[in-house]
Amino acid sequence: MNKNDIVQLxxxxxxxxxxxxxxxxxxxxxxKGGMPxxxxxxxxxxxxxxxxxxxxINVVAxxxxxxxxxxxxxxxxxxxSYLSMPYEMQIKFKEDYILNLFKExxxxxxxxxxxxxxxxxxxxxxxxxxxxxxxxKGQPVTAGLHVKNNIYxxxxxxxxxxxxxxxxxxxxxxxxxxRDKNYTYYYRRSHKGLLRHLILRKGVYTSQIMVNIVITxxxxxxxxxxxxxxxxLKLDKKIASVICTINDSVSDFIHAEDIRVLYxxxxxxxxxxxxxxxxxxxxxxxxxxxxxEALYGVCIDMLKDKHCDVLFDLYCGTGTIAQMLAGSAKxxxxxxxxxxxxxxxxxxxxxxxxxxxxFICGDVLKVIDEIQQKPNIVVLDPPRSGIHPKALAxxxxxxxxxxxxxxxxxxTLIKDLQYLTEHGYKIxxxxxxxMFPHTPHVEVCCLLQYMGSLHE
Length: 456
Known about the structure:
The protein has helices at 87-104, 165-180, 223-232, 289-302, 320-324, 339-351, 364-370, 389-397, 410-421, and strands spanning 6-14, 19-24, 27-32, 39-47, 52-61, 109-116, 127-133, 142-146, 154-156, 195-203, 208-215, 238-246, 258-264, 268-272, 275-279, 308-314, 329-336, 357-361, 377-380, 402-407, 425-433, 443-450. It has nine helices and 22 strands. It is globular, with a radius of gyration of 23 Å. It has 456 residues and is α/β, with parallel strands linked by helices. Helix 7 runs parallel beside helix 8. The longest helix has 18 residues, at 87-104. An eight-stranded mixed beta sheet has the order 6-21-22-20-19-16-17-18, sandwiched between helices. The protein folds into three domains: 6-66, CATH 2.40.50.140; 88-120 and 286-450, Rossmann fold (3-Layer(aba) Sandwich); 127-272, CATH 2.40.50.1070.
């Protein structure tokens, strides 16, 4: 067995939420994706003396517990790798994984509040980002999702179980329209072509839809006929915003050089409990609106009756958690590095008549040195990579009464909790929320209480 060999093996178990383990010729083979019980084909990407790493190519035989799905592409898509696993089994696996991770790393907690499932497990996504391309060389232009382990080929998302009928209708209508107009797609190797991305967003509670098509300036694009086609579609919700974003950057990252409003306004609104949030074309908002309420409900419950003078919301994004917890503090200060998110946070606070929140744009590592106030409560909601070690040290030095840590990556959470528990904090409450059914992702919430310096 050598690098680039194609091998067949049976997956024995999960190693992490998105990595599995099988054996070939008695050698352990680690794969990204797959599920225990499946027989798969995999390509060896790395080989050491006693272990291999491989990319999963194809599922040869399903596990005996898998269900038949209506999505023809889920085995080759980069998205919902757990889709064929019964939902009750997904929940149990994610919960067991989190609790075992705490146990294996000797992270103690006082109260476990449980694992909350998503209120909806199908058609729950309020945002989808599709790429333009084709399924194979010579095939007509389409819009969909990237094939697993392939940045060039696109697979159809028209049977995707995570998006609703309106998104399906819009996607189908746009593909037909672009084919009728003979539009080209942007080819990443030559950096030539027109169509790049399609971003669909909706307000679940407001029934508003935003359509944002991302193109280059290399060819002409009939904005009026595109808008007319969208407005002619029969939808349950209402299109409130049609956006055309110009992106001539070579990078596949969407760099908005120009944003044109073709119809309506440049935002949609979404409700969360009694608050309204404005969602701009590229601002962050949780992709599962109803599960977001469950997550924020956990945050509110954990800090119930814990009123304070100053609360910091670090890595605050558009300030959603800050505004949900504004009633718990006399003053709330949010810090976020993305300027557009900070602008949205300020706008949303004003919209919701919240006067005790202020938001600062900057790197948490640098900004917390510039803030004069000391927080009684710190809320942390960092990116998947976790918190920079130097920033975490400064946060721990606050000796705040409580830290509420919301994490989308249990592995980096554990690393940060180990540091905090070594510096005077104990975990009072632990809970998890399944924000992303059928995927290997989960949100974990921890409330830590400061017990005093271990060196005092």
